[in-house]
Amino acid sequence: MPIEFHPEARIDIMQAMRIAQITHGKREGGAFIAAQRLHEALLGQDVHSTFLNVSSPLRLKMAWILDRLPLLLIPKPHRPYFSLNLVGAEKLPTTGFDFIHLHWINKGLLSLEGIRSTRLPIVWTLHDLWPISDVNHYDSNLILGEDFQKSKVLNFFLKETKNLKEEVWAHTPMTFVCPSRWIFDQAQKSVYSNTHELVHIPNPIDLEVFQPTQKTLAKKNLGVSAESKIILFGAVGGIVDYRKGFHLLLKALHHLKSSMGKEKITLLIFGNETKQSLPFEAKFIGRINSDAELAKVYNAADVFAAPSLQDNLPNTVLESLACGVPAVGFDTGGIPDLIEHLQTGYLAKAFSPEDFATGLKICLDQSHHSKFSEASRRKAMLEFSSKIIAGKYKSLYENLSNNKKAAL
Fold it and tell me: Among residues 41, 47, 5, 44, which one has the least CA distance to residue 22?
């Protein structure tokens, strides 16, 4: 069965380009959130964007289970960074749209064969490395600092995936959109994408939702002392996902404690909780299911900590900057696209907890805060606003459509 329409996304915009937005996941996934924000921004640009949903959640789950079976041969810490996509629950629409816009299509959603089931041109936003690598979402060897021995059975499935992927990609018209300069560079080097058109367009942010508010009031609403300096950390699976770098943040906090031990500092965490001993008072606020509530949390913070070992263009850092909250992150992946060193925060040497602690200390210094805050908000307004990004995508669709007509 084809993917069905998402019931909340039916919208009639006459004589507009018709775009099918396809992604796996729920609201807590970064790719899903970015895709949903783009969809809403495009509607504001008179683009007929339709969010498609799976026709059978049960079939999706079964496809994911079957597709993961060979990956059980991979050591458990490495498994989250691999997908085969030899089995998929859905096929792409073949009519009714001008473009298929893919986002994150793993975890049983689409198989490699399912991707070439349409003749419609594909625009694909790269939310991680999987579309331009053999089977990797991120470099697990870099993240975990170790390689692993591959069995003959596993190598068979990896080779089958690689060969089929090369064949499908070579015969499928695709344009890859790269949200960060880092992933653009990776795409230029990849055999899967270097013969396709590559475009750099960041993810959008709603500046009316994510905007600075009165910090003292925001702290009060969360039950945090107005005198306390707030370090915010949060991510999907942030505590348990090794790639998100909480283990490095923990080390950095211990370094910070040694130099700012007399300061009143609170660690504010959304997402998962941890039972680990923390050097500062901590407040856990669980999962947040609305952007409006999330913006209130950012506005209570003095600095956002983004210790990821490898990331593309994380929504969390973008949300932080939009709220005028500087961020500290490692100089790796797409983080430098967001954090301008000593302007919108601090880029720490990868992967030094000591330097990360230095960045936190600098950003918590009130003599820098006003400058960092204004620069952060300004960067979000100039480079990532929903209107600007939707306009770039609209231009991309129009250019691709014109090129298609010219080729007929």
Answer: 5
Stretch(es) of the chain classified as CATH 3.40.50.2000: 215-383
Q: pLDDT tens digits for 22-42?
A: 999 766 688 999 999 999 999
Contact, 204 vs 319, CB < 8 A?
Answer: no
The count of other CB atoms within 10 Å of the CB of residue 8 is 8
Model-wide pTM > 0.85? yes
Q: Which residue has the tokens 């991979």?
A: 74
Residues 6+ away with beta carbon under 8 Å from 29 = 104, 236
Token readout for 17 is: 């380009």
CATH topology of domain 4-204+386-407: Rossmann fold (3.40.50)
Distance in angstroms (rounded) separating the CA atoms of residues 253 and 274: 15
Residue range 71-130, pLDDT digits in tens: 999 888 888 899 999 999 999 999 999 999 999 999 999 999 999 989 899 999 999 999
Give SS3 for 219. helix
Name the fold adopted by 215-383.
Answer: Rossmann fold (3.40.50)
pLDDT band at residue 67 under the 50/70/90 scheme = very high
The answer to whether residue 13 scores a pLDDT higher than 70 is no
